[in-house]
Amino acid sequence: MRSPESFALIRTEDQWRRASFDNTALIGEAVQLAWADAGIVDAAGEPPEPAGLAFDEHCRLYHSVPEQGRVERLLWAADHPPAPVDLIESETEQELGDFNPAGGSTRPLSYPSALAVDGNARLYIADPQTREITILDLWSKRLLRRVRIKARPVDMAVLGRWVIVLTSDPPGLLRIDARTGPFPLDPPQALTQPSRLAVSPARELFILDGERILAKGRLPLEVPRATGIAFQAGSVLVVARLPLEDFRRFRVSAAAVEELPSLKARGYDGRGIVRTPDGRIGYWTARGFRHAVAGRVSYAPRGRVTTYQLDSGEFHSVWGRLFLDACIPKGTRVRVHCAATDEPPNEPALARTPPVNAATMEVIRPDLSPPMPPLSLVPGPDGVALALHRKETGREIPWAAASPGDLFNTYEAPVFAGPGRYLWVTLELSGNTLFTPQVRSLRVEKRSHDLLRRIPRVFSREEIAADFLRRFLAMFAGAMGELDGRSSERRALLDPRGAPRELLPWLAAFVGLVLDDRWPEQARRSLIEEAVWLFRFRGTLPGLRRFLEIYLGRPPVLVEQFRVRGLGGAILGGDGGLQASSVLGAGFRVGGAVGLTETQQLDGSVDDAFETHAHRFAVIIPVTLSEEQREVVQHILDVHRPAHTVVNVCTVGAGMRVGRGLLVELSSIIGPTGGFRSMQLDQSLLGMGVVIGRAEAGTQPGASRLGKDTRVG
C-alpha cells in the first residue's frame, strides 16, 4: 500500500495572507503569536535637524556636525578608538584638516548635513545651504569636484557605482559620481517633504517623505514621527523616530511590508541612523556612537489562524492525516480544529482579517481566494482541542531530508472531522508571553487509508466505531505507506543531486570513489555525478581542470611550461625553474631535449635528472585559499596528475611578478582581488598579503579635466 500523494497545501506567503488571523502575525512564511513592545516610549516635539553618518570600506565612521560646519572621522572598529579627527577646517577651528593643502584651496564647509562613501573611497558631502555637493578622495586626500545644483540636497545613498541624491525645493532625485553628473531620476511618487533616502538589498529606493515612506510601485508606509531610515540584512527596513523612542522595523517583501519587533536606541539624538559594516544599526548620542539593540517583547498568550477552504475534489471525502512544519518551544503549544462538509450552509462566513503586523499587504487576485468557513463551523473559545504528535522519522514525503540547522520539525494529527469535500483548519497557538510557536506550512491528505475494507465488516458497521478505528489505524497505515513510498521512490537514492546527504558515501562507492569530508556537499554531489567522465580524462588538462573546478567553484588556469618557452621564463609564483623542453603527448624522454635523436648523458642521480627535465606545469587559482583548501588542492594534484610531472600551485595571494613571465590570460588575471588588503598597524606584515596606498584614477577621454583630475607627465 502506497501513501497518498495528493495534498492540500498552505505554505507560501501569498497563501497565508488569504487566511484569517486573530492575534497572530505573519513573518515571511511563518505564522506566530502577535507581540507588544515592552516599555515603549512615545515622545513629542519636532524632529531635530538631520546630520550625516557614513562608513567606508575600512570601517571608518564619518560624522557631520552641520551647525559647526565640521565632518569628523572615527575609528569605529578599534578597541580603544582615539579622538575624532576633523577632515576640513571650520570657521572656528583654523587648524589644518586632512583635506586642507598648504595652498588653502579647500574652503570650509557651510552646513554639511548628509554624507555618503562610494565603493571607490570617495566621500560625498551635501550642503543644503550652498546647494553644493563636495566630492573628496579619501586616499589621496584631495578635492575631486564641487557640484552646484539647483535644488537643496537633503540626503544621499550609494547605489552601485552611483550616488543617489535626494533633493527638496523642488523635490526630486539625482544621480552623480566622482566624474560625471548630476543626472535627474524619476522619483517613486509625488514628493512633498523628502528628508531621508535608503537603498534596499534589491536596489530599490525608499524615501522618507514627512511621515510616509515611499517606494516606486509600493503602497505608502505610514510611520509617525519618523526621523531616519536604513536597511539591515535580509530586506529589513529600520525606521528611527524621535529621541527616546524605539526604532521600528519592517520586513519588506515583494507584495507586503510586515512589522518586526522594535529596537532600543538609548540616547538617540534624532538626527539619522546608519547601517554598520557588521549589519547592525548605529546612531549618534551625546556620548558618541552607539548601536541599537533588540527590545524586549511580550507575546500574546493565545492566537488563531483559520485557513480558507481546502478542496479534495470529491464529495463525501474522508480526509487523511494533517501535517505541520512547526517550531514549538518548551512552554508553548499548537492545537488543531478541523471542519468538513459537502455543502457549506448559506450563512455569513468568517471575515478574512490580515496579520496584526501587516503594515501594507497586497494579495494577488483576491477574487480567486477560496471561501472562508461559515460562522457555524468556526470553533468557539474552547473548541480547539486536538493535540499534535511530533514525527520522530522526519517529514512524511519520501527521502525529503530537513536542511542542516533547521529548527522546524514535522508534526502530525488525524483530521478529526466528518466526511466532506471541503475542509477548514483552525490552528490555535498559545505561549507563555516569553516565547511563541511558529508554523511554516500545513499539509492535509485528501483521502484517508483504506484499511477498513481489508478487515471484517463487523468492526466498522457502526459509524462511531468506524470513525475511531479509522483514526486508530491511521498510525499503522501512515508508517506502512511511508515505507512503501520510500520503496517506490528509491530511485531518488541513485540521483547525486537528490540523494540524502548521509547516503553520499554509499552512492560514491558505486563508482569506486572515497569522498573527502573536506569537500563541500555540493562539490561532492557534482563529483559523484561526473565521476565516469572525470576518470576517463584523468591525468589530462581537461580532467585536472574540471576536478579543481568542482572543488573550488570556479575554473583554474593550467599552464604547461612549453607554452611559455622563449616568452620570459618563470610563471606566476614560480622560482625560475621551468627549464624543461619536453612536450607531453608529442614524443619525449626524460633527460633529452625535444628534436634531438642522439643519446645524452645524465649528470647526477635519476632524481636530479627528473627534477630538472620532468614535464612541468602550473595551476593558477584566481581566489584566495585557506590552509585547508590548499591542502585539498595539493591532494587532488598528487592523486590525479601524471606521475612524470612537476606542478606549482599559485593563488592570488602570491601576487604577480611584473617582468617574470607575466602573461595576460595565461599566467595572470586582471581585476579586483580579495588576496590583498590595506596595511593596518600592529596587524599586518609588509609584503605578506598587504599593500600600502591605492592606485590613482586614470585619465578618461571626454571625462577628465587637465589640472583637476589628470596631469601631463
The structure class reads mainly beta
Let me know the largest β-sheet: 7 strands, antiparallel
Provide mean pLDDT, rounded.
Answer: 81
In angstroms, what is the radius of gyration? 34 Å
Strand content: 25-35%
CATH class of the domain at 7-35 and 300-455: Mainly Beta
Give the low-confidence spans. Answer: 90-96, 101-105, 566-596
Number of helices: 8
Query: Any idea of the CATH topology of the domain at 7-35 and 300-455?
Result: Jelly Rolls
The percent of residues in helical segments reads 10-25%
Count of extended strands: 44
Distance between the termini: 85 Å
Shape: flat
**Assigned CATH architecture of the domain at 7-35 and 300-455:** Sandwich
State the gist of this model.
The protein is mainly beta and 713 residues long. Among the domains are: 7-35 and 300-455, Jelly Rolls, CATH 2.60.120; 537-675, no CATH class.
What does this structure look like?
The strands form 11 sheets. Strands 1, 3, 4, 33, 36, 37 and 39 form a 7-stranded antiparallel sheet that branches. Strands 22, 23, 24, 25, 29 and 35 form a 6-stranded antiparallel sheet that branches. The chain starts with 6 loop residues before the first strand and ends in a 22-residue tail after the last strand. With 713 residues, it is mainly β. Among the domains are: 7-35 and 300-455, Jelly Rolls; 537-675, no CATH class. The model is unreliable at 90-96, 101-105 and 566-596 (pLDDT under 50). α6 packs antiparallel against α8 (627-640). A hairpin with a 4-residue loop joins β6 and β7. 12% of the residues lie in helices and 30% in strands.
